[in-house]
Amino acid sequence: MEVDGWTLSVDEVTKAYGDLRANDAVTLEVRPGEVYGLLGPNGAGKTTLVKQIIGLLKPSAGRLTLGPHDLVADPDAARQLCSYLPQAQMPIDAFKARQVIVLTGMIRGGDAAPVGRRADELIDALDIGEWRDTVGMRLSGGIKRLVGFAMVTAWPGRVVILDEPTNDVDPRRRRLLWEQIRKLGDDGASVLLVTHNVLEAEKAVDRLAIINEGRLVAEGTPSSLKAEDRGRLRLQLMMVPGRPTPEMAPFVHHHTRVGNNVIATINDGDAAHGIGWAQELMGAGVAEEYALAATTLEDVYIRLTGHTSETEVVPA
What we know:
Blueprint: E1 8-17, E2 20-30, E3 35-39, H1 46-53, E4 61-66, E5 69-70, H2 75-81, E6 82-85, H3 97-107, H4 112-125, H5 141-153, E7 159-163, H6 171-186, E8 190-195, H7 198-204, E9 207-212, E10 215-220, H8 222-225, E11 232-239, E12 254-258, E13 261-267, H9 271-283, E14 287-294, H10 297-305
Parallel strand pairs: 3-8, 3-9, 6-7, 7-8
Antiparallel strand pairs: 1-2, 1-4, 4-5, 9-10, 11-13, 11-14, 12-13
């Protein structure tokens, strides 16, 4: 893939529906060769932003550009220059897997021979060879998802937008898929990864943004976003259902309750105090279990959005 230096720029983009702002002055950049994660809970405005980038919605205010192209003024260019894997499954029931991958690549402007070679590479890399000649209606949801990814990347645009690409994919092939997402960036594509999957995305992205209620609330590398939590631990309490959140101990820096789970951050040096406090709550019938672990990007996400991601693991 030829790298030409084009950057996807989102500048103060707002999308309003009456008094509701689905996106509120969102600004970010996705550079060539970069995997950029866009994280946020359902309803945060991620998909609304994507639909504006690819020309399906027009912003109420702000600018969207890709290199020299104004994507708002020329939505047709947006659709030509961006490859998009939507969150919904691709409509491929009547096509064989390899057939539809090659067909999509050719529709996007690739010649048959190189597109065919690329299709075979992706089929092998994602370990879906046994389904290469199977029609879509006979594929599982996870294999359909992988075929959809291959369709989008057999002849990718300048920007590749992936909306929850690992949905329904089994753990082994999910790992293979993350490798191919990372490879897209290494080969020079600008990759915009839209996901709830904080823990897995952390391993694949160069930079990321967290969006909540339409606004960009944090942006940076995974390491920089975790800087505030260095030297701290996560103390997670599984509350007895129906019990209110207990008064926080003085050594707790901040906490969030999601469902019956209270997730608190404490200093490394307060680990013993934290365990003792958790055991007291269990003895009083307030909490059922607790877990103490190192902080992750998940904790940043929880603190900023008040939500856990789809991969949040609670004590069993």
